[in-house]
């Protein structure tokens, strides 16, 4: 499947999962907009597969409905293979932070994350009681959690409450690759 068709499939999958959730909860688009902080128009476009939502929008929806991010990308296959650089990828508006979903269970999800050289990424706070575990696979990175800075090099790992303020900074001239795990507390 080419990248355009794969992207369209992903957009339709997100929209279908969101619409299914909304219908199961007997919610209107207005209700969902109020819950997530995402406009009714944007939510309707997502449900119909007419827009490719940004990572920030997907996080707002996920947080607002208290579902893990990857719950919006369900796969029914008994075996899932995720090759680096292929398949589902999301980036922030600046395109300096890219994530690739790797695995999801009921309360845990894993992603590969790529932070471009000489850049920073500050995510919105995640779901309440979520733990984030980050391991540097290549490169080095500074991670700021609650105002304190931690420097991690290749294979170093840090664990912290992801609902607290945190940021990733790559001060090097090379891309940093991370393995991220999110363990949800709901």
Automatic annotation (TrEMBL):
Cite the Pfam families for this sequence. Cupin_2, HTH_3
Q: Single GO cellular component annotation?
A: cytosol
Q: What InterPro entries does its record include?
A: Cro/C1-type_HTH (IPR001387), Cupin_2 (IPR013096), Lambda_DNA-bd_dom_sf (IPR010982), RmlC-like_jellyroll (IPR014710), RmlC_Cupin_sf (IPR011051), TransReg_Diox_bact_type (IPR050807)
**Domain HTH cro/C1-type intervals:** 18-72
User: A GO molecular-function term, please?
Assistant: DNA-binding transcription factor activity
Q: Which Gene3D superfamilies does this entry report, sorted A to Z?
A: Jelly Rolls, lambda repressor-like DNA-binding domains
Keywords attached to this entry: DNA-binding
UniProt xrefs under PROSITE patterns:
HTH_CROC1
Q: What is this protein called?
A: DNA-binding protein
